[in-house]
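Data deposition worksheet. Section B asks for the primary sequence of the deposited chain exactly as it was used as input, without tags or linkers unless they were present during the calculation. Section C holds the resulting structure in token form. Section D is free text for depositor observations; keep each observation to a single sentence. Incomplete worksheets are returned to the depositor.
Section A, Depositor: J.P.
Section B:
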Amino acid sequence: MNEVLPPTYKGPPPGSPEQVTAIIAELRRLYPDAKTSLNFSNPLELLVATLLSAQSTDVRVNIVTADLFKKYRRVEDYATVSQEELEKDIQSTGFYHNKAKNLRATAQRIITNYGGEVPRTMEDLVTLPGVARKTANVVLGNAFGIVEGIVVDTHVGRLARRFGWTTSEDPVKVEQDLMRIIPRKDWLDLSHMMIYHGRAICIARKPLCAQCPLVPLCPSAFLVS
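Section C:
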């Protein structure tokens, strides 16, 4: 949390129930239909799309998966394809060698350990190659409606620090800090709304504070260049 507040900030203490509740309410007003930007129709597709989204954009991933999901319809398809062929199919998402390697190994583990079905617990998901808490949270929340944590990507982390909800750069620590102050019922929606706001207004460089309705609640307003 921010211990020393700028003299220009007159809002409620960062991380206080008053500030947190007000920010969530305003984000809900701004982004009432916020949801994951990745296209998918089943848990396997969401798992694949999320793994491909690392160091890429959701727009690029959706372009790739439009054809990928027509070619690879079952977990067995990913488990048996050659490394070289899968690399070609996902190349434009970047880091395609490691991604293809992880996708194939993940598919093989799902078949061997989970009967060919994407697992539905955090403990099982994070045993899959390339899957950390962020990916597991995305799959659990959006494919299964199971909320065990908060998705922390670059947008969520950046906004959390600007709101004064954390000082950490470590996604795991950021998630822990957020889970302490955010009501559990808001965990899934909040990450989507923060991502929308981070893309539209609270961008990494030169955030558009003059356009932001959250200014009265943000201790970082007009202080980031």
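Section D:
The chain has a mean pLDDT of 97.
The radius of gyration is 19 Å.
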